[in-house]
Amino acid sequence: MTPRLIFDIETVGVEFDSLDKKSKEFLLINADSEEKINQIKEELGFSPLTGQVVAIGILNPDTDKGAVYYQVPNGEPKDEPNSNITYISAPNEKELLKNFWDAAAHYNQFITFAGHVFDCPYLMVRSAVNNVKPTQLLLQNRYNSVLHLDLLDRLTNFGAMRGKRSLHLWCQAFGIGSSKDKGVTGDDVAKLFKEKKYLDIAKYCYDDVKATKELFTYWDKYFR
User: Fold this and answer.
1) Ramachandran area for residue 131 (φ above 0: left; ψ -120 to 50: alpha; else beta)
2) Among 28, 150, 156, 159, which lies 20 to 30 A Cα-Cα from 118?
3) At what angle do helices 167-174 and 198-222 cross, to 10 degrees?
């Protein structure tokens, strides 16, 4: 059987005031209200040019064993095992990415939800920024699922279906438990990071990975 790995990332944006003057001007060039300005500042984490990876969750769907690599800035790296999952901290983004790529080298297929438009390019760009060499080329033809199977692409016929929706809504439709059921969403990650609740981010990330695994089970059984 092909070694397969499900993964998901969490990101946060830089502080807007830390950007140079030209970058600020470029980002705000079409912002014509206070509301739009605030929205742009809050969405800096969506781009690898103005954000960074703070957690990466992985799960082998065949063994049900996984891990979360997560940032604890300037902290001592440590492992926190919990049954089939291990939480592995890193003092910065560079070490976090190294940990992920070391693990990824042992797998031949990767499974994500919306990974083609977000997780994969984000990881590749941030790795280059940090001078980290990826062990897998995750920027691939989106129609070829040999290396990377994006569930959102497949379930929506590559966007042809109306109303692509979020992972949470897909989970609700299939009766799958979602990380959002616990009251945490991706919008909370930046706040948790500022509050130094790093392990909470890691646990939220793993909940998304588990939900993706359950959705993949439906895909594998009914859509292949």
Assistant:
1) left
2) 28
3) 50
Taking alpha carbons only, the member of 176, 108, 179, 178 closest to residue 145 is 108
Q: In what order do the strands lie in the sheet with 4-13?
A: 79-82, 85-90, 65-71, 51-60, 4-13, 109-112, 148-150
Q: How many domains does the chain have?
A: 1
160: domain CATH number is 3.30.420.10
DSSP 46: G
pLDDT by residue (tens digit) across 2-26? 899 999 999 999 999 999 999 999 9
Q: pTM for this one?
A: 0.94
Using an 8 Å Cβ cutoff, are 145 and 115 in contact? no
Positive or negative torsion for Cα 73, 39, 187, 171: negative
How many angstroms separate the Cα of 73 from the Cα of each of 68, 70, 119, 133?
15, 9, 21, 21
pLDDT above 70 covers a percentage of the chain that reads 96
Domain that holds residue 127: 4-222
Is there a contact between 134 and 110 (Cβ–Cβ < 8 Å)?
no
Question: Using one digit for the tens of pLDDT, what is the confidence trace for 174-209?
Answer: 999 876 666 667 678 999 999 999 999 999 999 999
Q: Please give the pLDDT value at position 163.
A: 81
